[in-house]
Amino acid sequence: GAVVSQHPSRVICKSGTSVKIECRSLDFQATTMFWYRQFPKKSLMLMATSNEGSKATYEQGVEKDKFLINHASLTLSTLTVTSAHPEDSSFYICSARVLTARAEQYFGPGTRLTVT
Amino acid sequence: AQTVTQSQPEMSVQEAETVTLSCTYDTSESDYYLFWYKQPPSRQMILVIRQEAYKQQNATENRFSVNFQKAAKSFSLKISDSQLGDAAMYFCAYRSAQGGSEKLVFGKGTKLTVNP
What we know:
heterodimer, A: 116 residues, seven-stranded mixed beta sheet, B: mainly beta
């Protein structure tokens, strides 16, 4: 149980276009999902916390107009990178919080974004 | 703000031997959770082990165990009988137990190599 999927796994886009990444909890409901960014050989950096039915909470330094997050249902959160630039190229990972007392977070497999 | 420090960027171990990965953290809170996550080359983050700060007993999961020293704010991971499949990046993470503070704070990671 507790499987999280991400789609697409890899995406290449041209500079100036927008890209949407989906994060789904497949076998559980998640009121809270998290979006991380990971640079090569670096740790995960939390970008924002996504709450179902409400606005996302962004970490300091993360542009909310650049990285649009929508958590429309208990199993789906989306991250849209708007007007992408080469510096947005990175590995994006989502996680979903399980609704149990232990409140574990389970991670998706990640999305490799390359902006040319 | 809480911080997590992993002082070993890289470690190596012979197959079947034991290795210990270090982690220290800084917090003023008394109740929190600590985690070790594994990130193999596939980039999928996998929860290895979890420790509640209020528990004195060290957590164990098969070949994985921790040495949790709350006063010293230390949380090391011991891998026994190392296997080739244990090769990965290992991240130590902290999460507050306070309601509404669900985000994980990660260390920079330790790259573990297992030599046959």
